[in-house]
Amino acid sequence: MEYTQQDFKSSMEIKWCPGCGDYAVYAAVQRALPIVAKELNYTRERFTFVSGIGCSSRFPYYVNCFGFHGIHGRASAISTGVKVANPRLSVWQITGDGDALAIGGNHFIHAIRRNIDINILLFNNQIYGLTKGQYSPTSKLGMITKTSPYGTVEHPFNPGELIIGARGTFFARSLDVEIKLSTEIMTEAAKHDGTSVMEMLVNCVIFNDKAHGYISDRENREDRTIVLHHGQPMIFGKNRDKGLVLDRDNMQLKVVEIGRDGITENDILVHNAENQDTGIHMMLAGMKMPEMPVALGIIRNVKDRTYDDNVRDQLEEVKAKAKVHCVDDLLHSGATWEVE
Amino acid sequence: MDITKRVEIDDVVIRFSGDSGDGMQLTGTLFADTAALLGDGVSTFPDYPAEIRAPQGTVSGVSGFQVHVGSGVVRTPGDYCDVLIAMNPAALRANAKWAKKGATVIVDADEFNEKTVQRAGFSTIDPFEELGLKDSNVIFAPITSLTKESLKDSGLDNKVIVRSKNMFALGICYFIYDHPFDFTFKYFKNKFRKKPEFIEPNKKVLVAGYNYAANTHAHANTYKIVSQKKEKGTYRSISGNQATAWGLIAAAEKANLPLFCGSYPITPATNILEELAIHKNLNVKTLQVEDEIAGICTAIGAAFAGNFAVTTTSGPGLSLKSEALGLAVMTELPLVVVDVQRGGPSTGLPTKTEQSDLSQALYGRNGECPVVVIAASTPSNCFHYAFHAGKIAMEHMTPVILLTDGFIANGSEPWKIPAMKDYPSICPPIVHEGDTDYKPYRRDELRLARRWALPETKGLEHRIGGLEKDFITGEASHDPVNHQKMVDIRAAKVARVQDFIPDQEIIGDADGDLLVVGWGGTFGHLLSAVDDLQNEGKKISLAHFNYINPLPKNTGEIFKSFRKIVVCELNLGQFADYLRTEFYNVRFEQCNKVQGLPFTVAELKEKFKQLLK
């Protein structure tokens, strides 16, 4: 059966603010789901959306699939339970920078460590929106918010570094406005066996407008971001004349200009998302403006055993060897005695 | 000529004590299991420190295990012991208060010297005088040196040899109480399957202890407990935590659903998770997750996806789970939360028993947030109540808190094995494909339970969550009138469970001078005390509750026919307060104890006698 975007829209009225970046991610999900369903031969009832609390966590209400709107920070734990209980489900977790990285940080890193096969959409707007504008764990140092009237005094997380540091097997990043790229990423995330984290850089028009404006600005976007593709050279820029090389003296990435100082396309690094080693993926995820372009696309996509597969396999293995097959057997196992 | 006389007795209480590394829990368990196999009634009480290996020879590191063996039904591990085994001076000092006057005290003579006596905190060099044990029959057995002697040719290293001295002490007890070796030998064979070199040495030391006692006439008499005829059937020994785990597995089997347990280790509940983890063959999935909150949240996710989901914990863990418990109430999903109560507040007394989580179980959540609360009352009936907690959770679509406590969780007793065919079926209201008119929050009239539509069922896609739900559709709703209706119906749904639980029983006459009211793990002690006073001709009865919220239908009725009512519990009066809110015109006296210890039968009888005056 072929689905259309319409099949995945619920009748619930969407209540995000006009101009919110979440709409664009929603649009990408609506485009991705029919593709995922077709490519993986999934029927709609296998898609289950789980969320925590926050603006983006309203998402499951708007998708015509099974949905569970959880409590603050616990989406990773809830989706872990859903997936282990029924491994056939395609589980999509919706979370934000507060939900996943502050109150839910513990569950989030452990889901990644276990490599459970869920797809996590991490909406990063660098602010608490639903509580009306307090700083989040990704807010830039010094940012002025309602709870930091003189500027924050704490360092932000870069989610990619956190995820790759926990040896996450899939990490991708997109911008709300890059709907096509987001759709591609989501499709690949669904195909990836293991925890897929997609950081969606979204705008909050009300409390943190243009948070990502420096890179999302249409005029400069191509010069300030690099879209990575597995097997392709790391070239970017409006004129496709800039690339990344490894500065071996400092063991860090460096931007070079193709055609200058004898640099040719052959000198540019080729992206290998499937490299088990986290080193270069960590560097790519950590690139910051203005010195470096911000990496978009699939930064890391490696194969490893998944938690849900391990749970299932162990269950089957133990069952095959077991002498106890039902509760009556269990009750009579071990030392018993008869009273005549 | 054998000058030892064999005496027939009704019961005996033995307390094994030593350093926490001395293997006292195992020694006591082996004695208890052998007694159970002989057909005796048995009740056990492990009394161990929170530290795994506290400094050797100090009172804080002493671990104890009390066994009560009797000819008939044994309901408690006994208040005081007839025999105290103390492997060192610290054990003696920590446990002498539990010895009856004139008790037999068996000590390891090798461990008693000026230095060890001092280390144990005695102020003189005669601990027996200091503890007032002069009337006791003290047996100074050179346990360590004789253990070494019997294994001198074993080739084992000294450390390993000394570790088996507990078997020497056990051997002495086997002689005095005429226990056969076979069960224990079988245990060694199984336990050391992978280290067969330990089988013979352990046997040898056990027999050496036995022979030592026989040869030295260590005890004037040996004793034989003559078992009364028990109900016909197959029996086994079972602890409360094991029974809880098995009861949950049984409920999953009856419901024909996989069992999912998301938990985090916490004393004294951890054995339930450990026990469940063994039985993956019975379609059990156990997740040891990152914290208590993940324990309940993975369980809620699993319940949404259609497993019978449980999480197991103790008091502090229940505190951490309270927000998520509210989510389970709001989403009306089946969930069993087991709370093995321990001494609180905060970290409190992790290895000691208490009943002080009752109020937390009843009320400890934000909003109007009722859940079903059930309490098991003996080690073996943890099976029954865990099963019924599962049945109620799944059939009524509600979270259920099952309260046990450290005392019954770690205690064990013989149990006549039930047959699963005698247990009722469990029929959760699962919606099947093809239901074109499914509304997530529409309810059945009987139970007021909503129906359970599982992901992957075609055509039943729906969304639920922690926001207030529309009365029928389950969509998020902020409508004031709808909220009132939902609060009311959630309360009514839990109250409706009353129609599905048995009436409260009274043990004794339905009227009289004093009704003793208890709940949970105090049952054995309360019943023993009430039994004794009934035999003395007092008009006293016992109503012991297992169903706490809702209470059985006839609860109000049974309070009417007694002159006085006393509520006994191991807290400051939480059940009494709960009863007062439900039955405001009844006067409840209280009997409370908060020492991390069970009641003693003696102190209960004294209290009841005062009330009967």
Describe this structure in words.
The complex is a heterodimer of chains A (340) and B (613). Chain A has 340 residues and is α/β, with parallel strands linked by helices. Chain A has a domain at 5-211: 3-Layer(aba) Sandwich (Rossmann fold). Chain A is built from eleven helices and twelve strands. Chain A has helices at 22-40, 75-85, 97-103, 105-114, 159-165, 179-191, 213-216, 221-224, 279-286, 307-321, 327-331; strands at residues 47-51, 66-69, 90-96, 118-124, 170-175, 196-201, 225-228, 235-236, 242-247, 252-257, 294-301, 336-339. In chain A, the strands form two sheets. An eight-stranded mixed beta sheet of chain A has the order 2-1-3-4-6-5-11-7, with helices on both faces. In chain A, strands 8-9-10 form a three-stranded antiparallel beta sheet, with no helix packed on it. With 613 residues, chain B is an alpha/beta fold. Chain B folds into three domains: 5-225, 3-Layer(aba) Sandwich (Pyruvate-ferredoxin Oxidoreductase, domain 3); 238-422, Thiamin diphosphate (ThDP)-binding fold, Pyr/PP domains (Rossmann fold); 512-612, Rossmann fold (3-Layer(aba) Sandwich), CATH 3.40.50. In chain B, β18 (512-519), α18 and β19 (540-545) form a beta-alpha-beta unit. In chain B, α1 (24-37) runs parallel beside α7, α5 packs across α7 (165-176) and α7 (165-176) packs across α9. Chain B is globular, with a radius of gyration of 26 Å. The mean pLDDT of chain B is 94. The interface between A and B is large, with 60 and 72 residues.
Estimate the global geometry of chain B from the Cα principal axes: globular
Radius of gyration of chain A: 22 Å
CATH structural architecture of the largest domain in chain B: 3-Layer(aba) Sandwich
CATH architecture of the domain at 5-211 in chain A: 3-Layer(aba) Sandwich
How confident is the prediction overall: mean pLDDT of chain A? 96
Taking the sheet with the most strands of chain B, its summary is: 7 strands, mixed
- Intertermini distance of chain B: 55 Å
Fraction of residues in β-strands of chain A: 15-25%
Largest interface, C-beta closer than 8 angstroms, per-chain residues: A-B, 60 and 72 residues
